[in-house]
C-alpha cells in the first residue's frame, strides 16, 4: 500500500485553504480535496503490511510537544507542479519534527523518500502549463492572506488509495504529542 506520515491540519484551516484554492482563476489546475490537506513529514511509498507495526513504533519514538503553526500565503513548485500554502510561523518546529521522524524511520530500516523537507500544504495541482505571469498574479492575491493558526499536536500514518477522482487518504494510526 502507498503510505505516508503526516501532521494533521484542523478543519477550519482546511476549509479556508480549500475556499482560496477554488477561487484561483486558473485553467489546468485541480484543487486538492480539503480532507486530503496535511503536512507530509515522510513519504513511505509502497509499505508492506508486515512493516506497519515497525512504522507505528518509529512514530511512537518521536518525542515532541505541541507547537503553534500559522499558515499564510501561496506559492508554487514547478509548472506543471503544485500550488501550496506556506508556514508563516512554526516552520522550524515542523522541520525538526520531520527530521526526528525520518531519523526514527532510518533507524528502523524503513524506506522513505529522502527529498529535502519543505513545510507546505499542497492545495492544488497544476496539470498543464499555465502562463507564468497569470499564475503569479493569482498567487499574489493571496501573498498576505492568513489561513489560520492552530496547535500542531498530532502525527499520523496514512494509507493513500488512488481512485478515478484522485487519492483518498485513510488514517491507520495516530499519535498525540507528549512531553519531550
Question: What does this molecule look like?
Answer:
The chain is α+β, with helices and mostly antiparallel strands. It has a single domain (2-175), classed as Cyclic phosphodiesterase (Cyclic Phosphodiesterase, Chain: A, Alpha-Beta Complex). Helix content is 27%, strand content 41%. It has 4 helices and 9 strands; from the N terminus they run E-H-E-E-H-E-E-H-E-H-E-E-E. It has helices at 11-22, 52-61, 91-107, 132-140; strands at residues 2-7, 29-31, 39-46, 67-78, 81-89, 120-126, 146-152, 154-163, 166-176. The protein has a 5-stranded antiparallel beta sheet with strand order 2-6-5-4-7, sandwiched between helices. A 4-stranded antiparallel beta sheet has the order 3-1-8-9, with helices on one face. Helix 2 packs across helix 3 (91-107). The chain is globular. 31% of the residues are buried. The mean pLDDT is 94.
Q: What is the residue-averaged pLDDT?
A: 94
Distance between the termini: 31 Å
CATH superfamily: Cyclic phosphodiesterase
CATH class bucket: Alpha Beta
> What is the succession of H and E elements?
EHEEHEEHEHEEE
Q: What is the CATH T-level topology?
A: Cyclic Phosphodiesterase, Chain: A
**With helices defined by DSSP (H or I, 4 residues minimum), what is the helix count?**
4
Question: Radius of gyration from the CA trace?
Answer: 16 Å
Q: What summary fits the major beta sheet?
A: 5 strands, antiparallel
CATH architecture assignment: Alpha-Beta Complex
Quickly count the domains: 1
Poorly predicted tracts of residues: none
Instruction: Indicate the multimeric state.
Output: single chain
Strand content: 35-45%
Amino acid at each position: 500500500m502507498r503510505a505516508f506520515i503526516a501532521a494533521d491540519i484542523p478543519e477550519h484551516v482546511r476549509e479556508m485553504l480549500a475556499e482560496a484554492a477554488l477561487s484561483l482563476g486558473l485553467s489546468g489546475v485541480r484543487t486538492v480535496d480539503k480532507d486530503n490537506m496535511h503536512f507530509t513529514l515522510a513519504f513511505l511509498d509502497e509499505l508492506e503490511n508486515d512493516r506497519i507495526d515497525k512504522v507505528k513504533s518509529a512514530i511512537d519514538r518521536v518525542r515532541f510537544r505541541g507547537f503553534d503553526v500559522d499558515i499564510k500565503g501561496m506559492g508554487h513548485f514547478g509548472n506543471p507542479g503544485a500550488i501550496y500554502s506556506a508556514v508563516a510561523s512554526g516552520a522550524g518546529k515542523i522541520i525538526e519534527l520531520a527530521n526526528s521522524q525520518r531519523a526514527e524511520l532510518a533507524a528502523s530500516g524503513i524506506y522513505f523518500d529522502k527529498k529535502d523537507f519543505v513545510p507546505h500544504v499542497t492545495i492544488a495541482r497544476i496539470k498543464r502549463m499555465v502562463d507564468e505571469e497569470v499564475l503569479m498574479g493569482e498567487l499574489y492575491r493571496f501573498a498576505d492572506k492568513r489561513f489560520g493558526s492552530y496547535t500542531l499536536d498530532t502525527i499520523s500514518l496514512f494509507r493513500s488509495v488512488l481512485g478515478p477522482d484522485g487519492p483518498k487518504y485513510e488514517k491507520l494510526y495516530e499519535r498525540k504529542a507528549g512531553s519531550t
